[in-house]
Amino acid sequence: MSEVKKIATRESYGNALVELGEKFENVVVLDADLANATKTDKFKKAFPERHIDCGIAEGNMMGIAAGLSTTGKVPFASTFAMFAAGRAFEQVRNSIGYPHLNVKIGATHAGISVGEDGATHQCNEDLALMRAIPGMVVINPSDDVEARAAVKAAYFHEGPVYLRFGRLAVPVINDYPDYCFEVGKGVKLREGSDVTVIATGLCVSHALEAAERLAAEGIEAQVINIHTIKPLDEELVIKAARETGKVVTVEEHSVIGGLGSAVCDVLCGQGVGKVRKLGIQDVFGESGPAAELIHKYGLDGEGIYRQVKEFVEAD
Amino acid sequence: MDKLRLQQIANEVRKGIIEGVHSAKAGHPGGSLSAADVFTYLYFEEMNIDPKEPVMEERDRFVLSKGHNAPGFYSVLAQRGFFPVEDLKTLRHTGSYLQGHPDMKHIPGVDMSSGSLGQGISAAVGMALSAKMDNRSYRVYTLLGDGELEEGQVWEAAMFAGHRKLDNLVVIVDNNGLQIDGRIEDVCSPYPIDRKFEAFNFHVIRVADGNDFDQLKAAFDEARNTKGMPTAIVMKTVKGKGVSYMENNVSWHGKAPNDEEYAVAMEELEKAGEALCQR
After folding, report:
1. Is A58 annotated in the active site?
2. DSSP secondary-structure letter at A96?
3. What's the CATH code of the domain at A88?
């Protein structure tokens, strides 16, 4: 088997911004002294006059982005997820969300896959925070192809968008000719009648790996990639729950407030499906190599396989 | 426009403030009244705006960073013709477009939603930056409370504006000396305000009486002629200005007059208006 191509979605973000910048004059990119890490340095090199380094002041950066957007610019405000959704939550809520301004938030270094930096920098709460803001679109792409498509879709979407990217290089899984990205549409990647695994972000490729292992043991798992956490593809989620009964959600995020909660919010009103939420189980992260942490927290292919199997075999 | 006319309009703005907060049975009259004169100067003298075309592209922008003074802001917008003065009586009522804090999505003339202190100045900086990037000529004004200066975000925004030499930006500080919990120097002193802005690379203009139109004119003319750095106008004002029992009284920061107090306030303002007419 040939080596799978791996790219971190933060790289995809940086590359997509350059492409957008070439086409559209009104694209401006803001950063908070992390251009080398968020990969907006590529945009800075290509369009220095449209790259605004706000220094280490994320709350102010969100406000500046809001002000810029009122004049017709389309700002992409970039920093780590911890600071975009965490530190600047109230600026995002009041200065961007409430007036429904056309600001895009590019949040890199989300989740425990930040790795060695540890808990202070591993944001496992951003989806919950952003999802709670009325009118906010929340997107968590699974690979390079999807991430680049999401950045472009965000540009064309009128209103605030939160884009979640990772530090870790992840396998490219969507590199097929008829790939099409649509905001709010989930993607069924695998058919199956015993259980549905709904995954997001870097957990999607792990879910596919788990499904292979389950299939080898006669358990057919349907796998759905949810790149848009909000608005959620409710129709697809309900249909899957009706088909398989049991649903497992998988995310590199707290089980409180993220994909799992969004799925439960939909299903609880339908009276269908029994859900198990895999993710970070209400704890802070820790330092360590990303792959080891993903394994430790049960979010690699093996961990997902084990937990889905247990769930399917339980009554 | 001559000074007397501006004084007359400011008096009408003050009446609108009292009408609004009385009708709402809530709101912030103290800081609205201290800023009534600068609101009037901005909207009737200084800014390039058109009430018939509130989102005119090349208009000057205003951001009320101390968003709780919406009663004063709405009153001047109504006087200027952005919406009917009569609507001020719907302030804070359920279903009214006149929300407790400025709402750009529903109120003509409001360039930015605000209310959470410290945030408006950042948006104003973004607007000023955009003009610089595109060589556009509009100017941006933002009004802050002196208590608001305790918010760290104000200084993040000031640092950026000074760094970027945004000389199309005017930060106005309404230094009425009082915040909810008492005198600003007792709560958590932001003084010296002028030297702080100087340290952030602003041109600072000190206004001894921010309720005086001659002094306001001198300050805004100086700001307009300032190149290469943003301007901060730090103006001393009287909180509650124009209503005797509200003046310099911290308890009127955020409460509405009852019917009796309303009648006294309106009578005082009527008399002040008549006195201006007889000049």
Report:
1. yes
2. I
3. 3.40.50.970
